[in-house]
Specification:
128 residues, mainly alpha, Helix Hairpins, 4 helices, 87% helix
C-alpha cells in the first residue's frame, strides 16, 4: 500500500514537471503567446490600478486565461499536425485553421469583456 502511494505520488510529481515544461516551451517558442501574456499582465496591472470589483476580476481573469489556453492548444495542434506531415493536406489545414479561429474568437471575446469592464473606469479620465 505504501509503495503504491509512493508510485502514485512520483507519477503525479512527474506529470507536473511535464506541465511546467509545456508552459516553458510555449513561452520560449511562441511569439503570439508571449504577446498575449504581456497584454494579460498589463490588463491585470490596469485592474489593480482601477481597483476592479470581484465580478470584474472574474471576467478579466477568465478572458485572459481563455486566450492563453486557446493559444496553447492552437500551438499544440499545429505541432502535432506538422509531426504528421508538412505537406498540404486538407484535414490538417482544417485543424490548423479551426484552432487559429478559436484563438481569434477568444481574443475578440476578451476585448469585448475588456471594454465592458474597463470602459466605466476609463470614461471619467476622458476629456470632456
Amino acid at each position: 500500500m505504501v509503495q503504491k502511494i509512493k508510485e502514485d505520488l512520483h507519477k503525479h510529481v512527474k506529470s507536473h514537471s511535464h506541465a511546467w515544461n509545456g508552459v516553458y516551451l510555449i513561452i520560449a517558442s511562441q511569439l503570439n503567446f508571449r504577446i498575449e501574456l504581456v497584454v494579460s499582465i498589463l490588463v491585470v496591472a490596469a485592474g489593480v490600478f482601477f481597483k476592479l470589483s470581484l465580478v470584474e476580476w472574474y471576467g478579466i481573469i477568465f478572458s485572459a486565461t481563455l486566450v492563453l489556453l486557446a493559444e496553447s492548444l492552437n500551438s499544440a495542434i499545429e505541432k502535432a499536425c506538422d509531426a504528421i506531415t508538412t505537406k498540404h493536406h486538407g484535414a490538417i489545414k482544417y485543424a490548423k485553421d479551426v484552432a487559429a479561429g478559436a484563438v481569434l474568437i477568444s481574443a475578440a471575446a476578451a476585448i469585448v469583456v475588456g471594454f465592458f469592464v474597463f470602459g466605466p473606469h476609463i470614461i471619467p479620465y476622458l476629456p470632456k
